[in-house]
Amino acid sequence: MTMTLPTTERVVTGGRRSGLPRAPRAAGASRRSATGWLFVAPAMVLFGTFTLYPIVQMVYLSMTSSNGFGATKFVGLRNFVTMVNDPIFLQAAGNTIVYTVATTVLLTVFPLALALIIHYGPRRSGALYRTLFFIPAAISLTVTGMLWRLGLNNEMGFVAKIMDAVGLGALVHPWLGDPATVLPVIILVTLWQSCGLFMLIIYAGLGNIDPSIEESARMDGAGKFREAWSITIPMLRPVIGVVVMLNVIHGLKVFDLNWVMAKGGPLHASETFSTYTYLLTFGNASGATSAFGYGSAISLVVFVVTGVVTLIQYRFRKAPL
Fold this sequence. Notes:
This protein is mainly α. It has 13 helices and 4 strands. Strand 1 (12-13) and strand 2 form a beta hairpin. The protein is flat.
């Protein structure tokens, strides 16, 4: 007697095998996609209105001759040719480079040193010192500029009074009225104002270092200086890279302190990209006609240079040790 075993057959219905999970419906996927775009739309509208559109408008105006109110005339690359032959622009470019390099170096070295001193110092006084150093950073740049402009007055300023009190009254002179000292003074004020902020950033990075690594170095006989130089600072490389990047970006577009303290003077000795662009775009105190096109061309150059420098720094920051 022959027995016939039952066979299992897969029934295909509507082009798919029964028993398998159904694919998500296209309608549901479309609804989810529409919901996602709905959440992203406000941010995209804000980005397009306040970031993308001004950039496109800046590129367009950089190739025109416009005062911002009347008709615009397309001039091609003439503004950029004028820029190369403009002695004030070249002086502003030099001042901007000097300011950026000086502030980047000073606002990396000094905050790093302060953060290390507080990190390796007594724990009880660490919070007090961090607060004291951060207080200037809590003051706006405009208020800081006005404060130091009054303080550096060679007749009534507190700097002159302190120098008289310690017997250095003969060295008092108009610091902001001398082309040789105005830019160094602004750099020092920037150091005073921003040092505490970058010190806190680096100090926060120190808190992410595994304490066992430092303890191992101490057990091997490493002193605090050797420990900081060989272990702590190399491990802070990502944080230091962020500090350098922030300082470079700020240096290339600095405006507040320079304008409040010296308005780019005297004799354009403290002129920077931003202050010169402001003068060109909105006219100067003598009532000269504004040059929106030329000012936009300078802004475009600063925008491109800042972007390129930032990308280079980001590339080096991501490079392996």
